[in-house]
Amino acid sequence: MKSCLMVLVLLLAAPLSLAKEIAITFDDSPRKAAGYFSGPERAQKLIAELKQHKVPQVAFFSNSSKLDEEGVKRLQAYSRAGHVIANHSHDHADFNRTGLEQYVEAFLLADEKLGQFENFKKLYRFPYLREGNDKAKRDGMRAALKKHGYSNAYITLNNYDWHIESLFQAAIDKKLAPDFERMGQFYVQVLMESIEYYDQMAQTHLGRSPRHVLLLHEMDISALFIGDLVDELKRKGWRIITPERAYQDEIAQYQTERVLPFNPGRIGEIARDKGQKKGLWHSTLDENYLEQRFISEVLQADMKTLL
Ligand SMILES: [Zn+2]
């Protein structure tokens, strides 16, 4: 009897311990309303979907230049719902086009302004994932992060969800009435393809599936379909974890020596250092490719371009 119980315990524990782990993060909050939802509606829907699908905590990487009255309220709502508010710079400057001094200033200004939120954490997400296009800038910003008690909030799972949002808003704008069921399926499918691709790349180079960090943006399609994505992740054996847990993975300590003006994410950096030169950006990270698929899979329309 005792051994039967033991087997049962092991059987129950096994799927959990084998589950692949993923944290969810949203950049560019509070991102401006594009037409479908207002800012407050988007926040409300996003919070409700995360709660309903039992995602206890995500992170919102925020730009302090967007903190008007409504923006402050939106971030307050995320923070009070238990989500992390973190630094994505003041003005979303491109580090490839900005000097170190000015860039550090914008990082510190955001630190000051975002510090007002209860759940603020000292995590920095580089806009466009660009960490410096020469060694002096890259090392200067690494030193600034360290000096101010910050960690680099790298991502492992890259995608172009922001372009899917543009396609969705354009379809609404042009009164093309996108079918929401097909829209949700398209969103989930494209994201799952990139997630599985980068996880496979990680397993190739690390010999294991690390705790992943998914890059998304604070947008209407995220609020509409995050629940569908979470369901699909769980169905495929993934477990949703907090950003804090994700950043405890060993790869958080990884620092490439290579200067990368365009950064594919942490898995891409590791793959590049291990000699992989091609496929660091998944094929779904292509605006034209996504547009063609959106036209055929969501709109099922006979048209060459949408945008
Ligand atoms: Zn951004």
From TrEMBL:
Record-linked PROSITE patterns: NODB
InterPro entries in the cross-refs: Glyco_hydro/deAcase_b/a-brl (IPR011330), NODB_dom (IPR002509), Polysacc_deacetylase_ArnD (IPR050248)
BP GO annotations: carbohydrate metabolic process
Gene Ontology cellular component annotations, sorted alphabetically: membrane
Source taxon at top rank: Bacteria
Sections of the chain in a coiled coil: none
Domain NodB homology: 20-241
One GO MF term attached to the UniProt entry: metal ion binding
Signal peptide location: 1-19
Protein name: Polysaccharide deacetylase family protein
Protein's organism: Thalassomonas viridans
